[in-house]
Records
---
Amino acid sequence: MLRQASPHSWTGEYAVEAVDLVKDFAEKRAVDGVSLSVPTGSIFGMLGPNGAGKTTTLRMILGIIEPSSGERRVLGCSRPIEAAHRIGYLPEERGLYPAMNAREGIAFMGALRGLPLKLARSRADELLDQNGLGDWAKKPIRTLSKGMAQTVQLLGTLVHEPRLIVLDEPFSGLDAINQGKLERVIRNRAADGVTIIFSTHVIAHAERLCEQIAIIAGGKVAFNGRVDDARARLRPIVRLRTRATDGPWKAALPDSARYEGGDWIFELPQSGPEPLLKALIDGGAGIETLAIERPGLHEAFVAIAGDAAAQAMDQPEEVAP
Amino acid sequence: MRELLRAAFVIARRDFTATVLSRTFLLFLLGPFFPVLMIFVFGAATAPIGSDAERPTVAVVASDQDYKALDQARARLSNALGPVTMINIRQVRPSGDPQQVQKLLQSSQPAYIAVLEGGLSNPRLIGSMRRTSGTVKQINLFVADARRMQEVSQPVEVEVVASKRAPGASVSGRALTARGGQSLLFLLTLLLAGMLLSQLIEEKSNKVIEVLAAAVPIDAIFLGKLLAMLSASLVGIAVWASVGAAAIAIISSTGLSALPVPAVGWPVFGILSIVYFAMSYLLLGAIFLGIGAHASSAREVQTLSMPVTMAQVVIFAIASIAVGTPDSGRALAAAAFPLSSPYVMIARAAEAPEIWPHLVAVAWQLLWVALFLRLASRIFRRSVLKSGPVKRVGTRPFLMTMLAGVGLASRN
């Protein structure tokens, strides 16, 4: 149970808190008891395959749809709309008025979030100039390329200088250059103390950007915590190449060790590297190379959410209900 | 409430600007003029062979001799001038009744535009036309030519006496105004409220709706869209009314005064027309917006809005039976029913001079507007973000949504 919230009683420790959020649609339960805590000022990734319930969870957090049960609190407000002026939201399905020009489109989004129109227009001009779109400010959005239109929508999300930015699949549809730009924007805003939540089904993005993640699969939170903690759930991986193909040294390898492309691959035993090394040397393995690798987020994801969820991460994103 | 109104204003401002500054709005404004233009084109083509009954008629209270002279003068001028629309004249023998002229002006069978009395020696034209009107000019020509043929050398000017119709004479005219106002209100409401539907479909298809829903209360989106379209509609009505009034002033020899004056007078009638249009628009628009939120395609919109449109036609029919009897029980019942109330009351404004019933009616309608907005907004909120793959709207889910909107079914 969340404590009764109001903007004035907000401690500021967590930008977003959600407890047991459930959302039932007519035919299925899209979100099943999601609980999250997003520390203020952090970059928080919501990781999961298509249809996992990420978008529905974000929509509930933002108050776009009401949960069937559960509670959430955003920037100290139990009714998220009360914090709307401090929130920026980039939906998964980009929405802009095609006939509006880029400047007015950004200013309109700022005005929706409480910015006076004059100020919103002046900030729109600044943002467009800073992002190399100054010449396109007065052009109708329908004449912009897809990448430009996405940038315009992102600028509209940021124009009112929100304290919480929620980005639903922000990298989808962007080329590598624009993905890099977006990563820089996220890092810069986070450096200013802004809390950023983004959903993605690309693990690499979460691994590069996030301090904290929630892994969502089947409408449930499979993991919620620091990226390092997720990775720490797995033992380091040892890659060993020996000159000897057989010998007493093999007894030092764990039963789960597998041989791939000339390398032995296995989890580092609980006893640590030193006993392993001693046994290999004493057993005459003739160590050619030995690497101890820290598992990546992908491996952690597979371990936490399972192979099926990991494979689903590569599927194209579906429209959330 | 303040934030709700602020957000509604932001949305209304954008929607209004986008609507009014679009090229399609120009076409929208020009649309009603095409049929009018067609009428004029075909009317002009058939004018020379138009029947006598379509021409204005002046009653001539005169002796047989004077009337014969005038009629011959009219025939000569008609032959000389060719296919010019000449006014008709009809003889009425003097009855000695001092009210004869007023009675003739009040007559509807036949309807006289003016009465000429005093014979050829002292002609006086009594009517509500202007001194520079074609009717006055033609009568002057007839009199001058008739006098010339009688070899009366001294010219005489027809004295024009302005008259107003007696109150009793306006009843049929006011009923006409009542029906006209009612029909215009109905057509405008139906036409313009329907625009909301297509606009919302567009909004759902370009996914802006989620951006809006995340930023402002859903009620503000609903209210903003309704107000924007109401404002755009009022712009359209102002343009059409101005052009219509100018056209009447130019075409009609008597200008706007040719129209039967409503009981409350033109200025109040104009204000009430706008108020009742707004009420009617908000009531129907709220229903249409609720429906539009539920539909995923234009086809679904048409399917879902058809019953509402048909119901509205029935309501209009109910409202129209109140014309002519504004104080009858059925008129009061129709005025109490919120959807027909604006139509009944605009008709009443044409027929009865009291203002206070309109104050009561507007307060009553405002109450219902608030209730309708609340209900439709709840349906809108529930339906508008179901933006997944396009699915057919079944009867049951639609009804469940409607029931949930009024709190009679579960929300999930």
Note: The radius of gyration of chain B is 28 Å.
---
Amino acid sequence: MSESVSHVVRLNQVNFHWSKSLKAVIDIPEFSMRRGESVFLQGASGSGKTTLLSLIAAVLQPQSGQVSVDGVELGTLRGGQRDQFRVDRIGLVFQQFNLLPFLSVSENIQLPCRFSKLRRSQAVHAGKSIDEETDRLLSAMHLSPSDIKNRKVTDLSVGQQQRVAVARALIGRPKLIIADEPTSALDSDTRQAFLQLLFSEVHAAGCTLLFVSHDASLGSMFDRSVNLKDINLAANNSDMLGATG
Amino acid sequence: MIGIAWKSICNRWTTAVLAVLAIAMSVALILTVEKIRRDARDSFAQTVSGTDLIIGARSGSVQLLLYSVFRIGNATNNISWKSVEEIRQRQAVDWIIPISLGDSHAGFRVLGTNHDYFERYRYGDKRSLEFASGKPFDDVFDAVLGSEVAAQLGYKIADSMVVAHGTGKVALVEHENQPFKVSGILKPTGTPVDRAVHVSLEGIEAMHVDWRNGAAVKGEGTDADVVRGMDLKPRAVTALLVGLSSRGAVFREQRAINTYRAEPLLAILPGVALQELWGLISVAEKALLIVSICVVVAGLVNLMSVLLAGLNERRREMAVLRSAGAKPANVFLLLCIESAVLTIGGIILGLALHYLLTGLGALFLQQRFGLSVALSLPGSTDLKILLAIAVAGLLAGTLPALQAYRKSLADGLSHRL
């Protein structure tokens, strides 16, 4: 296995700034994640966490340097290809409001399968059908499928919503799961339980996990903990850049 | 995608319903205005057919057309019986129908005429009048009712009725001494004929035996049998419908009558006078049409504003869709589908509303003016209008959709608002 494929995420001399007049927000000489690794990325707010995630998720393009995900150099993809690449390879979980209020729980989970044939076929492959895979994921997230599947999303607690969001990120087994502060809306008990479920299911699916939080106490549960300050040269000399979030 | 769009609409159903209603109302309005315009025209044009000339006292041609055929307004003067006889004897004249107006019964016009009316009068596609029951008037005091008159007042054959002088709805003086008897009832025609009480010219004279200079002569009033014995030759009529033996003679005859020396008369060609009438009405029609178009535009602007206003609240929704793999093009499509659903919903509801309105409107027009407005499937003009509204609705939806497309590109996957 070549080095580029054994690494699911690889950044090389990546430099990003919002406009030419502003200083760089991201200046990362080197950062990479191995396949199956779970990485905790810690950083104060304003340190460029979300920007870095956007670069890895191919939402933003760096002004210089290369970002590759699952062996694909993102700079070589065009707009539409980037969108397709993202839904095929990356599952995303955010802090909150991950779900569409007008769709049922199972429809929300199956959303990526509407837009990605790859995710759909992998979901069918993993379960017997998409519906069964949805049920399996719900059970894995300790949610009773029969009880919750057809409920309205707005009736769920925040903790339940976040677990549904993880199920959606995991459906169809994308190579990379990016979780941006998924636990900051949860209390500490729920947070522990949530992380346990996340780990076990990410591990079972063979996914690579990039977990971002400002809460350093969570770091010990991961394979590797990285402080953005240590890899991002721009973070050290940009104290004035607190506004970009 | 359509499923998502539909559920998204249902999620914001109040604004969606309002947008659909706005479009529905504009669709209903423009279709109804268009329909009434067209049907009124048809109905007017159908009222008289096969008549080459209409002759009356000298006035305006539109006025003559209105009072002689449509029973709208009043004549300024009459034609003397001597002139009627002279016109009848002209070589080019095939037949004449004398018409004498000026009296009413329970708000319906009383029309004095002769048997030629039932034989010669044509409406629509050269159709002649037919009797639903009974027969034309024989006696001085016989009356033939239009279908609407009989239906509204509940008259049957051989019922007696009292005719009032003047044409108001509430008659001040009634010709009580000479009650008329219903001898026949006509089939519906969808023309003002339905709203007329037809009596003989002699009957009109008989009504006025005890009248001098517009007021009742004091006394008991003359008995009907006595009246029958009197000389009831009509002294004047209000208008004449004339058929010529050759249509080629129509302009020559018109000129001859317009320059008639014994009496100032006016002869008009019904078709030409109708055109003049349209000329007058078209200004109002155009104004109405412009108002309807404005309402349609307002409906579409409303649709656009509903979609645009919703966009800010829905930025999060768009971001969720994007993070779940929707491309900006999908977001664009979603908004387009939404506007299409709202527009089509509006059009369907508008059509339903239109049929309801025309149904009620037809009833009113039939009762008030004897004009027939038939319920019909949308014609090609209607379909063109609907298509134009559908296209405009889709176009109105593309601006918010473009906006959503741009925003979802700019917002990316960010949830921070």
Note: Chain A touches chain B through 31 residues (CB under 8 Å).
